[in-house]
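User: Sequence recovery, please. Input:
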C-alpha cells in the first residue's frame, strides 16, 4: 500500500474535463488545479501500487491530457 501524488499537464481549456475524471476515480483523496509547470495534482489514499497506476492511466487517457507523472511516497522505516 502506497500514497501517491499524480501530476497532470493538460492542453489549454481541457483542465476541467481531466479534473472531473480524476475526482471520480475510486481511491482519489483530492484533485485540484495548480499554477506552475503542472496543471492538476491528484492525491490518492493509501492504495496498492496497481490501483495508483490504474488511476494514472485513466487520467492520462482523458482527452487533452499531455503528460502524467506519478510520485510515490517513500515509506518511513524508522
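Assistant: Recovered sequence (78 residues):
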Amino acid at each position: 500500500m502506497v500514497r501517491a501524488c499524480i501530476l497532470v499537464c493538460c492542453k489549454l481549456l481541457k483542465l476541467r474535463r481531466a479534473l472531473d475524471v480524476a475526482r471520480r476515480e475510486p481511491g482519489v483523496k483530492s484533485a485540484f488545479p495548480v499554477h506552475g509547470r503542472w496543471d492538476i495534482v491528484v492525491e490518492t489514499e493509501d492504495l496498492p501500487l496497481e490501483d495508483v497506476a490504474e488511476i494514472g492511466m485513466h487520467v492520462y487517457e482523458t482527452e487533452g491530457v499531455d503528460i502524467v507523472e506519478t510520485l510515490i511516497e517513500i515509506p518511513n522505516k524508522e
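Residues 4-72 form a domain with the Alpha-Beta Plaits fold (CATH 3.30.70.920).
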